[in-house]
Amino acid sequence: MRHLLTGFEFSSDEYLQVLELAKDMKENPAKYSTNLAGKTVVTLFEKPSLRTRVTFEAGMYRLGGHSIYLDQKNGEFGHRESVKDYACNMSRWVNGIVARVFLHSTLQELVKYGTVPVVNALCDLYHPCQAFADFQTIREHYSDLSKVKLAYLGDGNNVTNSLLIAGAKLGTDVTCVCPKGSGPDVQVYEAACEVAKHTGAKLKVTDSVEDINGFDVAYTDTWVSMGDDTPLDKVKARFMPYQINQQLLDKTGIRHVLHCQPAHREYEITSEVMDGPSSLIYDEGENRMHAHMAVLSTLLNQE
Questions:
Q1: Do 261 and 226 meet the contact criterion of CB atoms below 8 Å apart?
Q2: 130-284 topology per CATH
Q3: The Aspartate/ornithine carbamoyltransferase Asp/Orn-binding domain covers which part of the protein (predicted)?
Q4: Residue 138 has pLDDT above 90, yes or no
């Protein structure tokens, strides 16, 4: 039984296979129209969602399967009913569980007690499906990922962690440029660095924008993660030096820009860049669907 909780579960070759499958699904959708015929996934969401929910549901439909959405109007998983009972019951009815949760431990419980594949659609530590879509998008412009230099700017979070893992697996250099004290998870970074030793990827965490001169792709995310009620204006002074704007692109020579969305325009990224020729952001959003389809097909068609 295979799951996708962190991204570490996939070898470098398997990571590339998923990206190649996503590419083919995008180019030849009819070829996969019955790939998951007769199969059902449940999507459990503790957090609000636009792209994640729509792309998983649309992806299942395009593969000939069915998706059932459950939100958490009754509170977090484990309050009204234990996570164990959720997992045991769902495993009797569906072929897979896609879960967007507050805590990574919730996903681990779903795996522990369930008997179907579990897909992490976002948690406090990881966002692996987003990273698949990100690197699918990068690969559409850079055929050799081992020659790409990717810069992440802003608050180190679950997206940052997953970019480090994916970069390590694929041999892509990833530098995280964050204010001191706001970098990615240390344990995730160290684990990714161990993987990078075998693929040649160079991973780095710094607070200096000067370290990304000559990079290819810049990536950013909101300065305040979902569930944090801190007003953006309260952190603006701390993070504004890491804003992606045209001046940064001109200075560094960076050609392409990514953002996992939702974006706060004029905070972590300017509208000039988001709507400009360097932006791959809406391609990236579209590729969420194709990446999710590839992940679901890989996990739900295990022999």
A1: no
A2: Rossmann fold (3.40.50)
A3: 147-298
A4: yes
